Amino acid sequence: MATVTYTQATRIYPGTERPAVDHLDLEIGDGEFLVLVGPSGCGKSTSLRMLAGLEDVDEGSIHIDNRDVTHLPPKARDIAMVFQNYALYPHMTVYENMAFALKLRKTSKAEIDRRVKEAAGLLQLEEYLGRKPKALSGGQRQRVAMGRAIVREPQVFLMDEPLSNLDAKLRVQTRTQIASLQAKLGITTVYVTHDQIEAMTMGHRVAVMLDGVLQQVDTPRALYDKPSNVFVAGFIGSPAMNIKTVSLTDGGAKFIDMIVPLTREEVEKARANGGGDKVTIGFRPEDCDLVGPTEGGLPVVVELVEDLGSDANVYGHAALDGVSERFVVRTDRRHMPNMGDTVFVKPRADHNHAFHAATGERI
Amino acid sequence: MANDRHGRYRFLAGAILPALALYAVFVLSPYAQAFYLSLTDWTGVSGQVQFVGLDNFTRLVRDPLFLAALRNNGLMLVVVPVVTIALGLLLAALVTFGGRRGSAIRGASSYQTAYFFPQLLSLPIIALLWQFVYHPNDGLLNGFLRAVGLDALARTWLGDPHLALWAVMAVLVWSSVGFYMVLFAASMSAIPTEIIEAAVLDGAGKLATLWRIVLPLLRDSVQVAFVYLGVLALDAFAVVQVMTAGPGGPDNATEVIGLGLYRNAFTYSRFGYAAAMGVALFFLTLTLAVLALRAGRRERVELA
């Protein structure tokens, strides 16, 4: 049981100028499941490896509980890690793989046996204890990697994209298994993924990173409802939010004839700091309706309709200030338009997000 | 379909048969000839060949020089592969994992080049060089020992019956360690870094990682190295011939099978007897290879 604190932690790879991780401040509570998410190259894995001790910390510090581990070797940190390719020892059986760390710590044979059997039971690996990794399926290998971490009873679990080598169906299944396992064990966990759905479904809190900089850290709900900048708004949610920079009027943002209303305060904020007479507006595909031609919606020409069974995604374009812009709307299956139709899209009131046109910060 | 298959067999036969023919003429037939000669008293020059049965072999097992050679080759067979492989593994591990956090050290490839260098020299030249190094008065080794005040350790390295064989073995190890280091380093860098990192996180120190993770994953390379070095240790003819007094001396301390074979054939014109030695050596080498490859024939380890 432990808390993890990054304080201004920075990693600059030798020979590069831009930090891979740039002054990261992050506090992870005891027993919390925190997910680091972002596009590839955003520094999420590096942040994790810094905590593991596999990567140097060039500036700032990292604490586990109140112990400064910044410059401690990995084995002094009491952490266990699950790798993307599992990194099982190919010459050892499943049992030996799980027992390895305990054996090195000179744990008694009986204790090792008890803990390995317990973890194997938890992960349904009992029948495979005598097998070598090459005789296991991908999902089984993944569970062995989990088991190897669990038997250690470490202070912190680190997981580096542990599901990305599994097929889609198994991934969904394993996702819930890992989440419930973590809840049962109550061990502080830092989980890295590039998949925002994994992040949203598994994490107690989610930290979104871009270019080595932490963008926002919050609960999945808050991240979805109140993204703090344009990047987070576009990254979280699928299909992605419609985000357009349009002209600002006193009453709101102007989409051709449709006005997305903004309060006077919002308009003032949008105009400050070089915002000029532009504002960036976002609304989610699921937060708008298709309305009649006279009800003040934005006319969108339909290019593609994705029938998902339960509902449908409508892709189309509209000319904003002479530039063709793409829009996505999620709609009821009963009102599915056809290709080439013109539909009228109206965002629901109070469900739109306004961002500063120059800084991208939420207004 | 059948035609297609027919054409393929013809192609395969065309590719294999010439090679097989060459192999038969230049490899198999000399072997057969040697086996035959070992049962005769051929002198190598005369046209007269008399069949003597197993006489050559019964003489062989009572020949004190051959037995001395057998003992010396036996000792080399134990020492040379073990020391070379141990040093090669150690150097390869230092180069591959010796850096911070188990990464390669800086300038890894220049170390490899330096250690590989002896491999570029032919064995007689190496032997000649080391003869100079071992020279009791002007040699580099004694000169160095005297320069650092260790006069008491200076020896007549190749003149002392207790030291000569060890001096020869040191040369064999020196000349081959670089090659095996490069071989092992290549196998080591094929191990996924995550496996090493996982071991580090599991609390394994450098030695534990080397011994319990890296070494088992290198088993195939080590096994092959054992066979090659075993063959080298059973031979050792060139180094002994060039470097030692006699050669084979002092007091037969560096006598090896190859040396006896050479002497019997070309000095004493006992080709039949020499062929018997060759046959004995052939079976020794074959046994070694089979044993070494059998010893590790468990299921293969695959890197995921």
Automatic annotation (TrEMBL), chain A:
PROSITE patterns: ABC_TRANSPORTER_1 (PS00211), ABC_TRANSPORTER_2 (PS50893). It comes from the Bacteria. The lineage of its organism: Bacteria, Bacillati, Actinomycetota, Actinomycetes, Micromonosporales. SMART domains: AAA. One of its GO terms (molecular function) is ATP binding. Transmembrane segments: none annotated. Keywords: ATP-binding, Nucleotide-binding, Transport. CDD domains: ABC_MalK_N. InterPro entries: AAA+_ATPase (IPR003593), ABC_transporter-like_ATP-bd (IPR003439), ABC_transporter-like_CS (IPR017871), ABC_transpr_MalK-like (IPR015855), ABC_transpr_MalK/UgpC-like (IPR047641), Mo/tungstate-bd_C_term_dom (IPR008995), NA-bd_OB-fold (IPR012340), OB_MalK-like (IPR040582). Residues 4-236 form the ABC transporter domain. This is ABC transporter ATP-binding protein.
From TrEMBL, chain B:
Pfam families: BPD_transp_1. CDD domains: TM_PBP2. Coiled coil: none annotated. It comes from the Bacteria. It is a multi-pass membrane protein. Keywords: Cell membrane, Membrane, Transmembrane, Transmembrane helix, Transport. The keyword Lyase does not apply. The chain crosses the membrane at residues 12-32, 74-95, 115-134, 163-186, 222-243, 271-293. It is found in: Cell membrane. Residues 70-292 form the ABC transmembrane type-1 domain. Signal peptide: none annotated. The keyword Cytoplasm does not apply. Belongs to the binding-protein-dependent transport system permease family. This is Sugar ABC transporter permease. It comes from Asanoa siamensis.
